[in-house]
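User: I've been trying to design a sequence by hand for this structure and keep getting stuck. Would you show me what you'd pick, starting by listing the structure so we're on the same page?

Assistant: Good idea, let's start from the same input. This is the structure you sent:
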């Protein structure tokens, strides 16, 4: 990590930027990790799916979901820490049981999806998140979160960001805004833990991406701190309009990339 230059020990920046990956893309992802983490901390949703859409536009498909999972783990850990006192441990326990099964099943399939079809699936998923009708869930009992954990983690193995699924279950508990953000963060945190473990067992090499992951995680935590100060203050109507426009453009770009590759 460190190299000598004229007798001085200097930081080897090559550790932080993967070989054969443009520096401009790395800087873009570091900045977007800050912005999207702040977005989720401020309004509860949107950051993960925004980041996966941007990453899918510039990253190799094989690294996309695993690297996104580690970055989101850091982002959600920071958000859960900030709102720790609002966590419902009963909800988390049931969610983890389902998430563990979802990661085991999804991992055995996800690694075999060709790159163009992965981008196509992510584009369709993003469009559903933005424009589709969200599932109506009547959880009533916390054990229903196990079903939410299974479905969300299974989808996350393919599409990276399945926050809206878990959110649909959480929204039935009539939590405060702080409670929703806290429990959305901690359940998503454990979803990513199980997902990363599954990809690791399946042989994905995280090492070449560790430096970039570290920088994105740090910028994401800083974004969480800033976004948490905006919690309850942001104009949600304005945010949602802008969010829909940006996400639709990102999804259309992914569709174009995927269809171009498939037709070629």
């Amino acid at each position: 990590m460190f190299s000598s230059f004229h007798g001085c020990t200097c930081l080897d920046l090559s550790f932080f930027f993967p070989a054969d990956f443009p520096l401009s893309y790395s800087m873009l992802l570091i900045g977007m990790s800050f912005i999207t983490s702040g977005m989720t901390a401020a309004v509860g949703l949107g950051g993960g799916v925004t980041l996966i859409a941007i990453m899918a536009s510039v990253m190799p498909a094989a690294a996309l979901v695993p690297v996104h999972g580690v970055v989101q783990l850091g982002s959600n850990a920071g958000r859960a820490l900030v709102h720790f006192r609002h966590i419902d441990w009963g909800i988390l326990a049931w969610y983890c049981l389902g998430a563990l099964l979802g990661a085991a099943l999804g991992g055995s399939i996800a690694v075999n999806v060709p790159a163009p079809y992965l981008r196509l699936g992510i584009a369709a998923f993003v469009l559903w998140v933005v424009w589709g009708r969200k599932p109506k869930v009547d959880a009533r009992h916390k054990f229903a979160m196990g079903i939410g954990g299974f479905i969300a983690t299974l989808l996350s193995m393919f599409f990276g960001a399945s926050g809206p699924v878990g959110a649909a279950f959480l929204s039935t508990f009539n939590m405060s805004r702080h409670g929703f953000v806290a429990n959305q963060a901690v359940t998503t945190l454990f979803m990513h833990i199980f997902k990363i473990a599954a990809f690791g067992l399946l042989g994905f090499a995280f090492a070449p991406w560790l430096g970039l992951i570290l920088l994105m995680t740090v910028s994401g935590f800083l974004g969480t701190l800033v976004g948490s100060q905006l919690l309850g203050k942001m104009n949600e109507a304005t945010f949602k309009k802008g969010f829909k426009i940006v996400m639709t453009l990102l999804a259309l770009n992914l569709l174009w990339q995927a269809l171009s590759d498939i037709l070629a």
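That's my pick for every position. To get oriented when you compare it with your attempt: The chain has one domain: 22-263. Residues 1-5 have pLDDT under 50 and may be disordered.
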